[in-house]
């Protein structure tokens, strides 16, 4: 209660990450309980509906904080519900109100050389990544290609408070247009409308009064990509003017935004308080590093701007792979929401179709993409792909998937989209096999793979992370070699495609006992089989004819830690054992066999290279899968997913529903979502 901040705004209370940056809880102000010990009151900017909150703070002599979106706010538009991860909290005024001081203005006035080198690096990175305020689109708009000067005028939303409080009005936009056209009589003129206007939520100032020959950019595009193409930028108070400065463009201001008045812009309005020269790096450091506060949407904790750029960069990298019309064949309704999140972008149109005939009816053509789950492509789908000359893309669960089993409908945090084949099918090449055949890691990539492997091993991370359960000793009292035999789902595609002569759990146990008659053999059935969801059960009395112990009540990582060797058909457990530097024998052809790291019963001629363990880890866990953070609701990196898994495992609470009801309740919810996505 000591760190409680009061607000009248229900919207502010719903901001998930705000308490982290405030280091306080946020409570709705209750007039009937005026004695509640609020240490501060917070409201949104200078909106009229904040007057009640300000009056409350004044009556009780409490500090009043003004909240606003950060200059790098979110991945997605705020008007469409995207969660903010950048926040401004100002105790003096607010950055867009030039009529009086603000915290950012004080920071800029008093800024020295602190963080300027860091600021310069971050500016370069922001421009390179093309990061802006909302980060909802990465495609650009191609401007006319000639030698005439390209002049960009930034429109804003009508009634924007930054115009009113930025010492400007609607006539400022008319003046901006007149000055720009007189200065560049032979220029090409472009007007950029605001994303909220494009989204149909608001209207602008300029677009209804433009002379002939001025091109309106009313298509949503990446601001930095657009700014890189122009020669001069004219603005009233838009943040895009500062982004233009970061992109190295001259900027003329007809209002007084936070970055004007410091000698880095040409200004048609003056502010007497801003009588000192400041560099771009100083203004950036004051505004983006000291003024804005950031919270990591994946962890919910406070973070630095560098971390936000990492997350945006990861998201952009994956989103750039998602283009065109994508036809998804045969996906069950409960999987569709998850699949869509991994495939969608503003440049994709996703259709879930029943069969080839359905796809043809919806207009599939040779420029489309076709996606199936694993190897579940039917004859008519293959025939359609051949007819159109399209390579089928295959989707499968990633190697670090979730907290909970896929067969229990736990949402996947990683999926694989393979355009050559799929990792578990050795009968044809795959994107992973291609990576492993061509990889040449630099020192940074090798170091990252080593750190990742260490985190996985130390944290006991596996594919499903069902439960750490008990930690029994599974080693015998004598010095016999301990061999772990992981059970598999016997109708799994990796068994169907990757096994040659040993194809069932019982056959594997028999083969291992024959090869190692003196060893202490432990059999651990697959979690999906134990849950009764999949095929592959070996009755314990039969299994014990070939093994010494059947383990069902502890996590696979516990078994791996205590084993000397792992013998497997194609199980991912073999890969997890390699990460723990255990000796691994393969009886089939899993993706990690044939590279000189395992003892293999069978060979595959395509795999001729000798790889290091770091090569394998980097390709299989960093380069190959796609990762999606459901808490941040964006693409992420494998390290983010591990953070999330560890957090979920430590905080996981018992369900109020019996397990079987919880499982089917999840399926029901996903089915409903799938119908909505259809």
Question: How is this structure best summarized?
Answer:
This protein has 678 residues and is α/β, with parallel strands linked by helices. It folds into 4 domains: 4-109, no CATH class; 127-295, Rossmann fold; 321-450 and 627-678, no CATH class; 470-610, Rossmann fold, CATH 3.40.50.
* Order of adjacent strands in the largest pleated sheet: 2-1-3-4-5-12-13
Any low-confidence stretches, pLDDT <50, length ≥5? none
Number of domains: 4
Helices and strands: which structural class? alpha/beta
Q: How would you explain this protein's 3D organization?
A:
This protein is α/β, with parallel strands linked by helices. The protein folds into four domains: 4-109, no CATH class; 127-295, Rossmann fold (3-Layer(aba) Sandwich); 321-450 and 627-678, no CATH class; 470-610, Rossmann fold (3-Layer(aba) Sandwich), CATH 3.40.50. It has 26 helices and 26 strands. β14, α13 and β15 (348-353) form a beta-alpha-beta unit. α4 crosses α11 (280-291), α5 packs across α11 and α17 (443-459) packs across α24. The longest helix is centred in the last third of the chain and has 19 residues, at 659-677. The two termini are 46 Å apart.
